[in-house]
Amino acid sequence: MSTYKSDYYFDLPEHLIAQHPLPDRSASRLLCLDRNSGAVNHAQFTDLLELVRPNDLLVFNNTKVIPARMYGQKPTGGQLEILVERIVSSQQALVHMRSSRSPKPGSMVEIFSKDRSGVAGEVSVLGREGALFLVEARDEAITALIERCGHMPLPPYIERAEEQADLERYQTVYAKKEGAVAAPTAGLHFTPEILRALKDKGVEFAEVTLHVGAGTFQPVKEDDIRAHTMHTEWFEVADEVVKLVEETKQRGGRVIAVGTTSVRSLESASLNGRLQSMRGDTEIFIYPGYEFKTVDALITNFHLPESTLIMLVSALADRESVLAAYDEAVRHEYRFFSYGDAMFIA
């Protein structure tokens, strides 16, 4: 078992980091990795219709990205950027703040309008919780302020300003429950037409919820990954999902997680050895040596070198096979990360 961060490094040319989505969601390429043999095949995302079998169960994360990035100024006039991590009550949220100096507890921060032409709201800084700030919207719901002033929180490796198209494209077509500050990107490839075709083929669907936090981009700092403190995210697995998973297993179908966030949800609710309905916070850290209890296969995007997500993928297929597949993807110039191409590991 590889427990050193450097064991999950790979060379990635910068030009392969996708800065924009393709015009058509489903036009992405699909690299298929056999988790048992390590064999790699090249396909298109639409080939998923042939790769997924009748009686399989696709498990989607139905979280919806909120416009979580806001801009404002402190009482001193200093500019700052706010990234909402989690809404904790009708008026309060835990946020990241980036500025030259952190605002003091008790201070009021003015929030700019979307076009930054003027002040459109205010939040009071109540205090700190670790690296996060607890803020409270003044005279309105925090969600109303976010909706009025917020921007789509594109990942840090997308080095451009938000565009109008991102409002739709950095969101899955099945997004329902607001609360994520990053998209469950494996789902970005699905279109209503593909979903219909899969249903017509006899594939079953289930939905979990995991509100993806900004911590998903948090780097692993410790050389020994076992010392890494995983970020916390809220998730829910309902009774109906448990029932569908049990029925799938009984008929010999596969439980296919759409995205690492669906994996985290299902496996967090399976820590006692068997999937059960559950809701709450998860800090599960999946890396090689972990024994999967529910997930049989995975649809996922390509992940950052030395990230917790490539470690999760390397637990489902072995690390050497995953890194060999990534090298193959680089050689064939697949597009990487959120707006990039996809993998099917089965």
UniProtKB/TrEMBL annotation:
Q: Where in the cell is it found?
A: Cytoplasm
GO MF annotation terms: S-adenosylmethionine:tRNA ribosyltransferase-isomerase activity
Q: Which GO terms describe its biological process?
A: tRNA queuosine(34) biosynthetic process
The protein's predominant localisation is: cytoplasm
Q: What NCBIfam families does the record tag this protein with?
A: PRK00147.1, queA
What family is it from? Belongs to the QueA family.
What's this protein's name? S-adenosylmethionine:tRNA ribosyltransferase-isomerase
Its source organism is Aequoribacter fuscus
Q: What is the lineage of its organism?
A: Bacteria, Pseudomonadati, Pseudomonadota, Gammaproteobacteria, Cellvibrionales
